[in-house]
UniProtKB/TrEMBL annotation:
Pfam families in the cross-refs: COX2, COX_ARM
GO cellular component labels: plasma membrane; respiratory chain complex
GO BP, sorted A to Z: ATP synthesis coupled electron transport
Gene3D superfamilies, per database record: 1.10.287.90, Cupredoxins - blue copper proteins
Protein name per its UniProtKB record: Ubiquinol oxidase polypeptide II
Stretches assigned to the Cytochrome oxidase subunit II transmembrane region profile domain: 15-112
PANTHER family: CYTOCHROME BO(3) UBIQUINOL OXIDASE SUBUNIT 2, CYTOCHROME C OXIDASE, SUBUNIT II
Principal cellular location given in the protein's record: membrane
Compartment(s) where it occurs, according to its Swiss-Prot or TrEMBL record: Cell membrane
Amino acid sequence: MSRLKILALLPLAAALSGCNYVVLAPAGDIAAQQRDLVIISTVLMLLIVVPVMALTVLFAWRYRQSNTSARYEPDWDHSTKLELVIWSAPLLIIICLGALTWMGTHLLDPYRTLGRIHADRAVDQSKAPLEVDVVALDWKWLFIYPDYGIATVNDLAAPVDRPINFRITASSVMNSFYIPALAGQIYAMPGMETKLHAVVNHTGTYKGFSANYSGAGFSGMHFDFQGLDDKGFDAWIASAKSAGGSLGRAEYLQLEKPSQNEPVRRYGTIDTDLYRLILNMCVETGKMCQSEMMAIDAKGGRGHEGLNNTLPLAYDKYARRGTALGPEPTFVAGTCTPDAPQGQTTASIKAPADTAPLLGAGLKRPTFTPLKSSSFFLGQRPKSDS
């Protein structure tokens, strides 16, 4: 290779030196197991790819037209030994990949609680997992710490070697919660809850972002994830509490409005029922929660009476919500329990004991009055009683 070509490749080498191979050097046990899965799968596939590529070059060189000493067999069409190699080797690789995929799918299920925090350390049962509620907004991330009564925007922290239980939802469009150093991506969808169990094993600051395009402000939808020791995490919690600010329904509705490149924000106190209201899409006061609506539907619905159970929206995020029942944006009003008791989460809400069908009052059943004469059916008008 000439010196000119070497000099031309130097800028490319300099650019590659800035790459961060965080997926191959993660900070959490779940991400480390996923890395091992990728490496093992790649090696297994290379066991077929590399020999095939090498043999392609070898055959092209050995049986080139100018090599008159090569063996020439124009009528050759079958070799049992070659057929065994061609079919048995890929079949063994596929069996190994299938077994690896089966085990990885179950052992690395994001809904599965952690059985270990490291390859050589089991979960310490004396330590409660860290609960974090994640809400994907347009275009920012809201993190709620229900056990500590705080919330943050675009700022996430967790102590090392402590299991983390993420509950994930979204306010409008679908996003993807992804911290490459911690675990794989998990989708966030409005009105639905996904889960992720993970752990961070090394202190440091790692990048988190949305891996699913969600609109104009998507490029700024990222945050820092801090892995801290116990003292550092306690100091981080204390700093958040001292930051002041309260996050309730009214504050959330303002925060929910689309905005781009939001700075880090912290709230010292929160509405303990806020995540349940976000998940059930009923943060607006008086709006029927999704769980309440599903419970009514499961018991038979409310009939025609439910058609009039709508109220105008006090706050309309996009000015196009629920316009099917009238010219003004509306929502279904709560009828049974407008608000769940403070502090009650979706996990603590139980199904009603009475499962009998719910019959809506609706319109009254029409009454039938028989005609006095059958002349009506003969094309004649019935005679008046007067």
